[in-house]
Amino acid sequence: MTRIAIIGAGFGGVAVAAELLRAGFDDIVLLEKADRAGGVWRDNTYPGCACDVPAPLYSYSRALNPDWSRRYPPHDEILAYLQRCADVWGVTPRVRFGAEVASASWSGGGWEIVLKDHEIVRADVLIPAVGQLSRPSIPALPGAETFAGVAVHTAHWTPDIPVAGNRVAVVGTGASAIQLVPAIAGTAAHVTVFQRTAPWTLPKPDRRYGRLRKAAYRRMPSLMLLSRAATWGLTLVPGAALTGNRVVNALVRGYSSSQRRWQVRDPELRAKVTPDEPMGCKRVLFTNAWLPTMARPDVDLVTEKIVAVTPDGVRTADGADHPCDVLIYGTGFAATEFLVPIRVTGRDGVVLADEWRDGAHAYLGLAVPGFPNMFLVYGPNTNTGNTSVIYFHEAQARWITQAVRRVAAGDDLEVRPEVAAAYDTEIQSRLAGSVWTACQSWYRTAAGRVVANWPGKATEYRRRTATLNRSDFLPGSLPLE
């Protein structure tokens, strides 16, 4: 029986486990360091946390949900949905909670996985599904350790963070801050937002889903397919804007500019919230509340560079001190450091971190030369800038199931170095002309290599992963087909 170890029980890990169970594989263990499934939706509980992809798309294709409360549901609904899917599909009983992986090594005949408590788990197939947004990134600000108040990253939020009636400073204006700040403004005594670069925003076409709609979805599930298809169609517009259609890009930029004109009357503030980087080089954010919140009298937007944290607050380059009682880092994640801090060692003692020293890479985002029978979920260059990453997870799950069938038949799968190199050259060549090279973001390494995003349409990725090509791999114990 083929032993399969999956690291992580978020959307990707659950997708792969469910697909393998459907294919008849039963010896599966999901190693999850937390006490429950959920990934980012378990870890991120800050006020205002919600999905920025419409619910009809942010769903498994075989588990469309008639009970979403709105088009962009809050995190607790998404977490409950994921956990329900894991229960229904029989994944949950196969999760080992509190099992944090320290290292994994290829022994020549399989994988030896060492947990933090030194227990060893052995498997024939290793499937890391830890995601790209699992390790919070906190800037090394001088004096941060001297701050006398409460300091927290949005991914480490707890219900007892003392926002009400206190002065709050928020560092960052990315996706988390865009949601958090409007949710706490008015509850906090005052909010100061520190912005390095202004984000591109678009109106968020959110709406509540009423009882009649939910009842219709339950009675006629095919209606959900229509909603999903229509939502998919809408994502093609920002997708075209990001991938080079100049006409669509100009239209979307104009729509964003109109939003600033409608919602920000003060010319000085409007100048502060106007981006000076190309649209799409960082994630475009959907919001109806961010710009009006910036105009509130109890909210300040500071664009001066932070030079230090003091015991009482934050000091900026102009010498101004900004007092606060709570310091919140909305500074994102170490997305380019795939699989860190897990030490993965492949054939001939090759360490994956060394292989990826100049930036992570993997054939189809799934396989790395020198690491037999290891298949990544949400690996390098499989992030999407405009649609649901769950679509990519499901494509990866189907491909991985094909790979596991080969392993179960007695084969070992290790991608050919020349195939992986040619693929990486193609992907990086396509990315070189993309908007994602136009500024520094979590999509790129410090050296400038884009390691997060897929350069084409989601349908292209699905097509290219539809069938495992055995000739792309080194000869194993079974003949090439």
From TrEMBL:
Molecular function, one GO term: monooxygenase activity
Domain of life assignment: Bacteria
Keywords: Monooxygenase, Oxidoreductase
Gene3D superfamilies for this protein: FAD/NAD(P)-binding domain
Any Pfam family: Pyr_redox_3
Presence of keyword Glycoprotein: no
Signal peptide: none
InterPro entries in UniProt: FAD-bind_Monooxygenase_sf (IPR051209), FAD/NAD-bd_sf (IPR036188)
Protein name, as recorded: Cation diffusion facilitator CzcD-associated flavoprotein CzcO
